[in-house]
Design a protein that fits this description.
The chain contains 21 helices and 25 strands. By secondary structure, the chain is of the alpha/beta class. Helix 18 links the parallel strand 20 and strand 21.
Length: 609
């Protein structure tokens, strides 16, 4: 039987000649990265447990979430990492460098067929060059820094074929928003995606990065492109050696194959709150905006900035609109300066910042306030992710055109005169702000394998890590301080931390814990004494973080809810080993999927360490 791309990469880094989906294996990690918000916790784990550093030359810090050091806690955390790096001979890509995953590609620190991990949940962006990248929590990263390897469950692979010609004016961001519209946030959950097609072979490296960067928003483990010769030459020049070609075998086995008509792809915009709520731009045209953001790991590349400059040249940002532009890396920033793009941006009235993640990480320019309407090239627009306002996602050219127009529009429909704010607009803004404010007001020695607890029935799908634990609290490193912030960004459950009781059990829907790799979204539940979380499925990174931290998480089939006749506030008994569940209110019984052997071992150990 042939192998898919991910199966080949994982097999090449394990003791096996071939691997198959569902198999749990140990893999060697070529490149190991911690960022400025996850890095201090990695340092803490290593120092508390007296762990070694397996290979400093394969180990890196990247300061990209808050490269301005504008928050005292971030500045402190960065300094902790710098001191640790000096002590152990670890390279730091400091605040002037930009987004870490992009740096790995630029410098050849990853290559086609390589493996890499980071505390960045978008590390799977490396699938753009057929490298295996995964975002993981700080416990995972600490263990990998110490031993150079980790366990991983081989995922199923899915093939997507784009048939037909690429429509005129369809950017890489439009392509991935069309895919999100088609597949949603969880239909490809936990899968490794491979994309093929005659037009796909022509995609530039920057375009591949844009599309691969939003695999996380699709719920996928990773999204792969088979490299073309131009991309191989990029890495061979960086590495000074031949790079082995990586591709799927003709007889590789895929869980699903989808064929899509590329010629029907449209310009798309994601509605606020959900990246997968992508609609034709015609549905939101002329929606007035207050601000615009161009950047992030999805759209801060030089090709993006060139396209933006074409729109802005000779034009001005509309009155009352703020445009913020953040290149992805220092190399991109310097290239934009050399090509005169920065001058065009400044003359148009934009704010240009130093490279980094920007608004996506709540640590740099790009955030918005209550009632503010933003159009952004970011990868996420979860509530609260880029501030307290509403965020629409779109391509760089649409964002630039909208900034000039004062409302959402296309390049072809930029008006001769921009929209000007009116008193009526301010009334609407104040109302939106008030609505937002009102909405926001509303390890033991012996680990038990069976618990009883009160149920919190939160039947929502795609509860992401920003809803669980908002990114503004990321500088906190003391687990005891984390519990108070759990669910304070999930509408209707802002007071969860005040009302939850020890051993309470959260029962929720699909894809719980999607989004960021932050360990805080697990540790906060541990701090509160939550007994277990039952979900139909979990985000891939969240699942690892929870298992490694000994937070009991279990999956169930939808029939369980009916069989138990479960209601909010019921008391249930759950056995982690047998999977038996009983509703103590009515005596009804059902089952969940029990712990795997590895999960049980880690749980009884009180965590990975």
């Amino acid at each position: 039987m042939g192998q898919t791309i991910i199966e080949k990469i994982l097999a090449n880094h394990s003791k096996y000649d071939q691997v198959k989906p569902g198999q749990i294996i140990e893999i060697i990690i070529d490149t190991r990265v911690a960022r400025d918000f996850g890095g201090p916790n990695v340092v803490k784990h290593i120092e508390e447990h007296g762990l070694p550093i397996d290979d400093p030359h394969k180990t890196f810090f990247t300061f990209d979430t808050n490269p301005t050091g504008s928050d005292p806690k971030y500045a402190t955390n960065q300094h902790i990492c710098r001191k640790f790096a000096r002590k152990h001979g670890i390279k730091v890509f400091d605040i002037n460098n930009g987004i870490g995953t992009h740096t790995l590609i630029e410098l050849g620190l990853v290559w086609p067929g390589a493996t890499a991990v980071s505390t960045d949940s978008h590390a799977n962006i490396l699938g753009a060059v057929a490298a295996f990248g995964q975002g993981m929590g700080d416990k995972d990263i600490a263990a990998i820094w110490a031993y150079g390897k980790t366990w991983f469950k081989v995922p199923e692979s899915v093939k997507i074929i784009l048939n037909g010609k690429r429509p005129e004016g369809i950017t890489a961001k439009d392509i991935v928003l069309n895919l999100l519209h088609r597949f949603g946030a969880n239909s490809l959950l936990g899968k490794a995606i491979e994309i093929y097609g005659e037009e796909v072979d022509k995609f530039t490296l920057d375009e591949r990065i844009t599309i691969a960067s939003m695999a996380t928003e699709m719920g996928a483990i990773i999204l792969f492109f088979e490299p073309n010769e131009k991309i191989y030459k990029h890495f061979e020049m960086r590495l000074g050696r031949q790079v082995d070609r990586i591709f799927a075998d003709p007889d590789a086995n895929y869980a699903e194959t989808y064929e899509l008509d590329f010629s029907k792809f449209q310009q798309m915009v994601s509605l606020p709150g959900k990246p997968h709520a992508a609609v034709n731009i015609l549905e939101v045209k002329r929606k007035k905006i207050d601000s615009a953001f161009i950047g992030s790991c999805t759209n801060g590349r030089i090709e993006d900035l060139r396209a933006v400059a074409q729109v802005l040249k000779g034009r001005k940002v509309a009155p009352g609109v703020v445009l913020k532009i953040v290149p992805s890396t220092d190399r991109v920033w310097q290239q934009a300066l050399d090509e005169g793009l920065i001058k065009i941006f400044k003359e148009a009235g934009a704010l240009v910042s130093n490279p980094g993640c920007a608004g996506c990480a709540a640590g740099q320019v790009g955030m918005n306030g209550p009632g503010e309407i933003t159009i952004s090239t970011g990868n996420r627009n979860f509530p609260g992710k880029q501030g307290k306002g509403e965020v629409y996602l779109a391509s760089p050219v649409v964002v630039a055109a909208s900034a000039v127009a004062g409302y959402i529009t296309t390049v072809e429909d930029i008006p001769a005169e921009p929209a000007v704010p009116t008193p009526e607009d301010e009334v609407h803004r104040q109302r939106r702000t008030q609505e937002h404010i009102e909405r926001n007001k509303r390890i033991e020695a012996e680990k038990p394998t069976e618990i009883e607890g009160r149920v919190w029935l939160i039947m929502q799908d795609n509860i992401d890590t920003d809803m669980i634990y908002h990114n503004k609290y990321l500088p906190i490193t003391d687990i005891n301080e984390m519990g108070q912030y759990i669910f304070d960004n999930l509408e209707g459950y802002e007071d969860f931390a005040k009302k939850v009781q020890k051993n309470d059990i959260v029962v929720t829907g699909k894809n719980f814990g999607s989004g960021s790799s932050r360990q805080h979204a697990v540790d906060g539940f541990l701090a509160l004494g939550v007994g277990a979380i039952l979900a139909q499925s979990f985000g891939a990174i969240y699942e690892r973080n929870a298992i490694n931290s000994a937070l009991p998480i279990l999956t169930y089939d939808p029939e369980m809810l009916e069989e138990l006749e479960l209601k909010d506030g019921d008391r249930i008994r759950v056995n982690f080993v047998t999977g038996e569940v009983e509703n103590l209110r009515n005596g009804k019984k059902s089952r969940v999927n029990p712990f795997s052997e590895i999960q049980l071992e880690i749980y009884k150990n009180g965590g990975l360490f």
